[in-house]
Amino acid sequence: MRSLAAPVASVLVALTAIGAGPRVFALVALPALAAGALEHRLPRAVAAGVGVLLGVLALGAGTIADRPALVVAGVLWLLAGIGRAWGINRGRSRRRAWTNRGLTALGAVAIAFLVVYPTLLTVGYLTKPRRQIDEAALGLPHARVAFSASDGVRLSGWLVPSRNGAAIVLVHGGGGDRQGTIRHARMLAAAGYGVLLYDARGRGASAGQENAFGWQWHRDVRGAVSFLAGHGVRRIGLLGLSTGAEAVVTEAAHDPRVGAVVADGLQGRTAADAAHLPAGDRISVQPAFVVAGAEIRLATGQHRPPPLKGLVHELARTRPLLLIGTVAFERAFDRAYTTGTAARLWELPDTEHTGGLADRPGAYRARVLSIFDGALLSGA
Question: Which domains are seen in the chain, by residue range?
Answer without folding.
Answer: 2-127 (no CATH), 143-269+306-377 (3.40.50.1820)
